[in-house]
């Protein structure tokens, strides 16, 4: 695809993606016996004629099974997903090709928002997080994003308190230029913005680009929505460019980044479908359902089409005022305690 990918209509995009998804469907049937068993049980061995006819796996299967489409000697790295304390972490098997494809795609997507230059970067976390195996998912997220910055400074100490000397030195040095700030949504709010508020401090980081991810669940409980979140950031550090992004360890690379109009856009090599939780039918624009994400990247594990545990809706198709075409989504939160059970009933077994 040589033309500007953001100018492909949804229909054009699907025409490009469908053969890639069908290829991945065949590829994983041939190389992953679990995947083959799951789709065979659902009688979906033939090529799909529509993106929404492709099979999908429940994302939690990656917590229950070691799903791999490569030989053990080709494993380059095993990515652990976050998972709360009560859950076991998912395991995502990567070979060098898939890992390289993920990195390249992430660079392409994020450079559209933050530009090609590596900016001085303030990370809203503790520097020791990257050394603690307990937090490997958080560390992987930080390390993935740290690639896009330089002169990294960690804003928090080991007790999750602001490290004021580090923050002040960073502001002193870079207050008159663009910088990158990254943090997980809740941490950015609770340990940085709220800490600034409590101390009645304001920082001059008006040219900062703020990236954050990781879900709104804890903030919803505090009645903090995206508008409130952005207003507080503007008030405390002066930054106007605040971009949420949606992504998961099971589909690294194809992240959905919030545009200047506040919408999460499906990236070039990915698609999204929202399904009715009761019968798995495809929801219309604006209708709430379970989010299914499709990514053209993973060949080392069968995760190209996943039913997430997130509720949300498709908000627009080809009509976002920012000018980027394709689908935009909103995330409404996690599914209430659900059981998307076992292997064979992953297609129809999502119950709410
Ligand atoms: Zn947009």
From TrEMBL:
GO function terms (MF aspect):
long-chain fatty acid--protein ligase activity
A Pfam family the protein falls into: LuxE
| InterPro entries in the cross-refs | ANL_N_sf, LuxE
Where is each Acyl-protein synthetase LuxE domain found?
Answer: 4-346
Which Gene3D superfamilies does the UniProt entry name for this protein?
N-terminal domain of ligase-like
Q: Which GO terms describe its biological process?
A: bioluminescence
| Recorded superkingdom | Bacteria
SUPFAM superfamilies under this entry? Acetyl-CoA synthetase-like (SSF56801)
Official protein name in the record: Acyl-protein synthetase
């Amino acid at each position: 695809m040589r033309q500007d990918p953001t100018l492909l209509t949804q229909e054009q995009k699907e025409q490009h993606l469908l053969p890639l998804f069908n290829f991945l469907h065949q590829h994983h049937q041939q190389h992953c016996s679990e995947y083959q068993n799951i789709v065979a049980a659902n009688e979906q061995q033939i090529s799909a004629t529509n993106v929404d006819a492709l099979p999908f796996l429940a994302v939690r299967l990656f917590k229950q099974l070691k799903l791999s489409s490569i030989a053990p000697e080709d494993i380059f790295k095993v990515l652990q997903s976050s998972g709360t304390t009560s859950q076991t972490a998912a395991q995502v098997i990567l070979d060098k090709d898939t890992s390289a494809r993920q990195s390249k795609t992430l660079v392409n997507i994020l450079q559209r928002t933050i530009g090609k230059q590596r900016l001085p970067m303030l990370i809203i976390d503790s520097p020791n997080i990257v050394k603690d195996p307990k937090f490997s998912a958080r560390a992987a997220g930080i390390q993935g994003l740290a690639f896009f910055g330089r002169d990294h400074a960690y804003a928090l100490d080991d007790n999750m308190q602001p490290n004021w000397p580090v923050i002040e030195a960073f502001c002193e040095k870079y207050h008159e230029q663009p910088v990158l700030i990254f943090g997980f949504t809740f941490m950015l709010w609770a340990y940085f913005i709220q800490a600034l508020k409590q101390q009645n401090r304001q920082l001059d980081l008006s040219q900062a680009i703020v990236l954050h991810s990781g879900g709104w669940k804890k903030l919803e409980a505090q009645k903090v929505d995206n508008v409130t979140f952005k207003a507080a950031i503007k008030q405390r550090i002066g930054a106007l460019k605040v971009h949420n992004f949606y992504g998961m360890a099971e589909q690294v690379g194809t992240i959905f980044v919030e545009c200047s109009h506040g919408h999460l856009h499906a990236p070039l090599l990915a698609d999204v479908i929202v399904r009715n939780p009761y019968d798995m039918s495809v929801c219309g624009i604006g209708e709430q359902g379970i989010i299914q994400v499709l990514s053209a990247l993973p060949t080392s594990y069968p995760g190209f089409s996943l039913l997430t545990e997130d509720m949300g809706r498709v908000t627009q198709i080809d009509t976002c005022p920012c000018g980027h075409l394709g689908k935009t989504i909103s995330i409404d939160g996690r599914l209430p305690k659900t059981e998307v059970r076992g292997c064979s009933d992953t297609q129809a077994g999502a119950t709410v």
